[in-house]
Amino acid sequence: MWNEFKQFALRGNVVDLAIGIIIGAAFSKIVDSLVGDIFMPVVGAVTGGLDFSNYFTALSGDVTAASLEEAKNQGAVLAWGSFITAAINFIIIAWILFLLVKGMNRLRRTEDAKTGTADKPPEVPADVKLLTEIRDLMKTGRSL
């Protein structure tokens, strides 16, 4: 069992996935900072002080605080401003990943065009060709 686990854990795909997750977590922190520290203050300056992160709706009559952090300590709140900020984070991450995949696809097409492998179907292995011929012969009722 140990050898099987070791073989699984050291397989290239698992290591690549782990690296991707770690880089994704770091990338998420960068985007959070981009949105919270750069994008949202600009939106706030353009809209006259609008700051989504502190917007909330009190779900309890006990909540009288003006800031979200204090309101959470007083009772139940619907922090819809935090949701808007998270949605903006998601849109930015999705856009950047879209551009990254688009660029990778463009590079792949360029490399395929250089090597002449673009739109070329993969070669069928000899055993598959033989089995296809046998199947076709069997359909027609002829023997080998």
TrEMBL record:
Domain of life of the native organism: Bacteria
Cell compartments where the protein resides: Cell inner membrane; Cell membrane
Keyword Transport: yes
Its membrane topology: Multi-pass membrane protein
InterPro entries linked: Mechanosensitive_channel_CS, MS_channel, MSC/AndL, MscL_channel
TM region positions: 12-31, 77-101
Keywords per UniProt: Cell inner membrane, Cell membrane, Ion channel, Ion transport, Membrane, Transmembrane, Transmembrane helix, Transport
Any one Pfam family match given in the protein's UniProt record, by short name: MscL
Family according to the record: Belongs to the MscL family.
Protein's job: Channel that opens in response to stretch forces in the membrane lipid bilayer. May participate in the regulation of osmotic pressure changes within the cell.
Record text on subunit structure and interactions: Homopentamer.
HAMAP family: MscL
Protein name, per record: Large-conductance mechanosensitive channel
Organism: Microvirga splendida
Gene: mscL
